[in-house]
Automatic annotation (TrEMBL):
The keyword Transmembrane helix applies. Keywords: Membrane, Metal-binding, Transmembrane, Transmembrane helix, Zinc, Zinc-finger. It holds the Pfam family zf-RING_UBOX. The chain crosses the membrane at residues 318-337. SUPFAM superfamilies: B-box zinc-binding domain, RING/U-box. GO terms for biological process: protein monoubiquitination. The keyword Repressor does not apply. Residues 87-129 form the B box-type domain. Residues 10-56 form the RING-type domain. One of its GO terms (molecular function) is ubiquitin protein ligase activity. It comes from the Eukaryota. This is Tripartite motif containing 13.
Amino acid sequence: MEQLEEELTCPICCCLFDDPRVLLCSHSFCKKCLEGLLEGHRGPIFRTPFKCPTCRKESPHNGANSLQINYSLRDIVEKYSKIRVLPKMPSCAQHCGQPLNMFCATDLKLICGFCATTDDHKGHRFCSLEDAYEQEKAAFEELLRGVESWRSADMLSCLETLQSSRKKALQSVTKDAEKVTEYFDKLIGALESKKNEILSDVETVKLVVMQAYDPEISKLSAALEEQRRALSIADSFRSVSDPSCFLQQMQEFREKFRVLQETTLPPKKEMDVGPLVRNFDVKKWDSLRLREVDKISVPHENGSYRVGDSRRASAPKWIVVFMMSLLLSTLLLLLRWHNDLTAHMKPHLTTASVHLSHTTDYLQGLTSMCTGLITAEMRHTTMIDRSAATERVDHGSSSLSKAFSRLFIACGAGESKEILVGFFWTTVVA
């Protein structure tokens, strides 16, 4: 059909021929198309020959009306136009290109000629499309009445109920989504607030570290600068032969050296800048629940991390302080008594001198051990109740009395400085 339509199309307007006129070369064109082309070939005296738009062959003319009508082509175009208006017959899906020109009255469906010969329609009753049309037209009216009498009211009611339930469910889901969004927005806000708070404390720790180290660093840097200046002065007047100039430079050099001698070196060990740095332990945060995330403590809160109101029980420091004071007083009395005793006991003078020379070491060791005792007491206080703590104090006092007795007996026997160390370790262990 497409090829036929192409043959029935005018080359000028690309539409179906309308009143086709034929030239001497046998090519046909629409009358209106030729009139438009012949308009330019009208001369005042005579008409010039017209060239065919397809083959360029000249044809004499006296206007479009003088050209011969192509009757056969006009009839074909008219018939083709009528056929093209008719609906296109559907083709069979199983047999390509075969029109559905038969109706199976058994299956109530359109079929082609090949379908009628297959086993699928063996023994079926067939009829023409016109007879099937009359039968199905009557059946259509009956089906239409059935559709019209269908329970549309019940279905509409059910539809409204479902739509209402759907709307309520969506509203509930929307509220839940808003709650989730609000909750996590608050959670994110709490995390951001806690992060900013901790980072602020980190900056404070930085300031503490800088305040602890910067003065000593500046002091040492200044001392090194003084040394550099002193060496520069020495290089400048080393070869001076004039006595007055040399003595003047020597005086300045000696002053620089005096300043260097007065500069004391700080301890090389790391300085203690407080508990803040040691308390940044992020591993403790892993055990927190989400609802407790805003309760993460920061270093400025009692120098330790805590969750909620749960704090570590404070250790009975007064017991340790009392024991330390009692030990210090006793040791001082014993040392004084020992000094008086050695004044009358010449053989033991050397031992007493050693004791006196190392008194500072004893006291420093005592302080360190007391500090360890405080730390140990703080660690174990949370694991015992008050009654157990009372028994521990009574037991410690009893052990302390026994240790004092052993100390007096040992000192009376004239033992050396190992007595004091043994006494203190016995007391701490007890």
